[in-house]
Design a protein that fits this description.
hydrolase; transmembrane helix; membrane; 243 residues; mainly alpha; 68% helix; cell membrane; protease; single chain
């Protein structure tokens, strides 16, 4: 397992400890570490989900590429894969998809496996969101810790909802792509470089689209047991520098 991944995990745990301290600065610092460390950790787990599913599905080149080490440096460019998504979270925006693992689709056994490889990443985010919300619901904890974890869980749900959309360049499209006609896949390939950019512009620039997206995200968050009020409190503490 990558030492860098363990460091990210350690930062998240440290944040959890600080979030329990009855002192405003320490508690806020803890929430920031929970969110940033936890989000970076989840980016690695998202890509690991793609990789391990591909490996079990027939792509035996995955281990040689280092994808099973949970090392964020292996998931394409570290700036685009880790730093840029973190900056978007810090800015209070929608968490961007992270890196990418390059899969040999010709080695995969069938179209069903290809679909599962694409779905494995966003499903990892959904499972993480469910586990975190379950911990908040079932384990008594100070408010600082519960709000920080709730906001982290909400980011996982947002990542799931975003990535599952059937738009070229996102995992949701990757899940249906093997079942499309050759002509449809050809059009999807042409749209892949710019379709996610158009989506992000619509989310930020068109109020109706942004509201619809976040309404769906909050719906899913509630279905997995999340408490929106705690997530909002965690977001406010995380974005303390804006006040």
């Amino acid at each position: 397992m990558s030492p860098l991944f363990l460091a990210l995990l350690g930062a998240t745990v440290l944040g959890g400890v600080l979030a329990t301290v009855d002192q405003s600065f320490a508690r806020t610092t803890g929430i920031v570490l929970i969110v940033l460390g936890g989000w970076a950790t989840s980016l690695c787990l998202h890509e690991f989900g793609h990789a391990i599913t591909a490996y079990r599905g027939g792509d035996l080149s995955v281990p040689a590429k280092g994808y099973l080490t949970l090392d964020p440096r292996r998931y394409t460019d570290p700036v685009l894969s880790i730093v840029l998504p973190l900056l978007f979270v810090i800015a209070g925006g929608i968490p961007l998809p992270g890196g990418a693992v390059w899969i040999n689709h010709h080695a995969l056994r069938n179209r069903r496996v290809e679909s599962m490889v694409s779905l494995a990443g966003p499903l990892t985010n959904l499972v993480l969101g469910m586990l975190i919300t379950a911990a908040v619901q079932l384990v008594p904890m100070p408010q600082g810790l519960s709000t920080g974890l709730s906001y982290l869980a909400f980011l996982q749900v947002i990542a799931f909802v975003l990535n599952i959309l059937p738009i070229p360049g996102l995992d949701g499209y990757g899940a249906i792509e093997p079942w499309l006609s050759y002509r449809a896949r050809e059009l999807g390939e042409k749209a892949r470089p710019w379709a996610p950019l158009v989506l992000f512009l619509l989310l930020f620039a068109v109020p109706f689209v942004g509201r619809a997206f976040f309404s769906l995200a909050y719906l899913v968050f509630g279905l997995v047991g999340g408490e929106p009020v705690l997530a909002l409190l965690g977001q406010e503490s995380f974005r303390f520098w804006e006040f």
